[in-house]
Each structure stands twice: as C-alpha cells, then as structure tokens.
Amino acid sequence: MDFDQLRSFVEVARLKNFSRAGAKLGLTQPAISTQIRQVEEEFGVRLFDRIGKKVFLTQPGVLLLDHAGKILNVQKEAFDALRDLMPVPAGHLMLGATEGSCLYLLPKVFGAFKKRHPEVKITIYRNFTTKIVQKLQEDSLDLGFVSLPVDVREIETIPLFREPVDVAVAANHPLASRTSVTAEEIARHPWIFPKTSRTRVMIEELFRGVRPPVHVTMELSGVETIKKFIGIGLGISLLSRSYAAAEVKAGILKLVPLAEPKLERHLGLAYRTDRYLSRSAQAFIDITRQHFEV
C-alpha cells in the first residue's frame, strides 16, 4: 500500500463517490477503483459497501480511515519541515476564505504575500465559515479566514477585523433617508435572505420574536447577487459596510444603521493547534497580522 492509494481511499471515504474522488485527485474513476481494489486484495478485506451511486465504509474501512488520516498528516508535516530548511518559504499553501472577505478585504493581503514570497503557490477555497472550519478539521486547509466566533476545540483563531453591519436598501427606498431604523420597522419590508451564511444567522436572530413576522421575498446565494437585487428595489438585507462601499459611493445603495441592537461582523484567521504550521503558513500569518495591525 502506498501514499497514492491511501490518498484515493481517504477521498472516496470523504466524498462517498469514486468519480468525484477521481475528479478531486485528477484521476479517472477506473484508476481510483483499481487503487482501492489493490488495497482490498492486499489485506483480504472489503473497504466499501456500494449502494447505488454511493459507497459506505465497512468496519475495516473505518479502521483504515483513522490510520490513513494520521499517516497522510505525518507525510505532509515531513514535507513541510523539509521545505522549511530552504532559505525562503516555498511549497503550497491551502487557504480558505468566505466570499465577502475574499472579494472585499483580502486581495491586498494576498498581493502582499505573493510579492514577498512568489515561490509559494496559493490555492483559495471559497465557502461559508462552517465549510471552512470543516475543511480545517479534515486537514484540507492550512489556514482559513472565517467569521467569528468559532468554537471548535482544536482550532485557534486570531481576531483581525470588525465592522458594523447595516440595513442595505436601494438609494430610492423609503428607508434610505433614515438615520436609523428598528427591527420592527424593517420587518414590514420585503427581505432578501442569504441562503446560508453568518449573515443569515444574524438576520434570524434579529427577527426572533419580532412582530409582525419578517416578510421574506426571496433567498439568494452570493453577496454580489444580493446587492444587485437590492439595488433594483426587490428587497432589503443586511450587509457589512465594506461589502457595499462601492455601491454606496456610486449612489446605488444606502446603508441605514440599526438603532438596536448594534450589529458587527468579526473576521478572524483560523488554524489547527494540533498540526505543524509550515514556514509558509507562519509567514502568511505574519503578513496578515501586519495588514490588519494586530
């Protein structure tokens, strides 16, 4: 059994699908199947039960998965330690970032890092905080920019940035001239909810127990899409100030603060405390701290 077979086994176990595991690893489905079959034949056990298009771990598969993850982690730490002997940071850095932070807050951080360390290859996984935390737990990411708080035992966070979250309305909306609004007032207007995100949780908490019940006119994915629909008057929503700065400057949107409660978004950098941090990851943390002055 070799590292490639272990890596294929772990991806099939994680994705519960041979074809998707192959696509993730840049292999064909038959190649993945061959690798799994070779391991099964070597040890005389079946690692997966196949039910329809999905596969599920057998008891021997569960046992191997626990050890396979540890073996691959040790391999990665060994490679990182060897790369750290080089005079400058190198290797491959896997970063996670929420959509909004990736678009509006972090390009300058990424640019500063690449300018100083061009030898380091960066891959950015863009998703919601819960998915980024999950990827960190799976050891698929080195670092992740997330909305705080994150309460996971093996994950440490460095607070970086906080900013107000306001009610975003079209520039010609009846609320656009207000200096502040209450939850009861805005509940009467059509709302655009993000499908899933920390903002969605914030909105649901804001309207818990509010009467009349909030009027949800649509659910959308993506900050850019939500801003466009707000701008043409199809609803209102919550947005961080930096996310809407360009549209406010252009006169498309208006941000109206809530009277109470005062809402804020907190951004942090997350990493595993029980894993080796490569020299590249440490350099990225240092540059991020400098940028946000923390």
Explained architecture:
It contains twelve helices and eleven strands. α1 (3-15) crosses α3 (29-43). The chain has 294 residues and is α/β, with parallel strands linked by helices. The chain is globular and about 70 Å long. The relative contact order is 0.14. The longest helix is centred in the N-terminal third of the chain and has 25 residues, at 59-83. The mean pLDDT is 90. It has helices at 3-15, 18-25, 29-43, 59-83, 99-105, 107-116, 129-137, 183-187, 198-206, 223-231, 245-249, 279-292; strands at residues 48-51, 54-57, 91-97, 120-126, 143-147, 155-170, 190-194, 215-220, 237-240, 253-256, 264-272. The strands form three sheets. Strands 3, 4, 5, 6, 9, 10 and 11 form a seven-stranded mixed sheet that branches. A two-stranded antiparallel ribbon has the order 1-2. Strands 7-8 form a two-stranded parallel sheet.
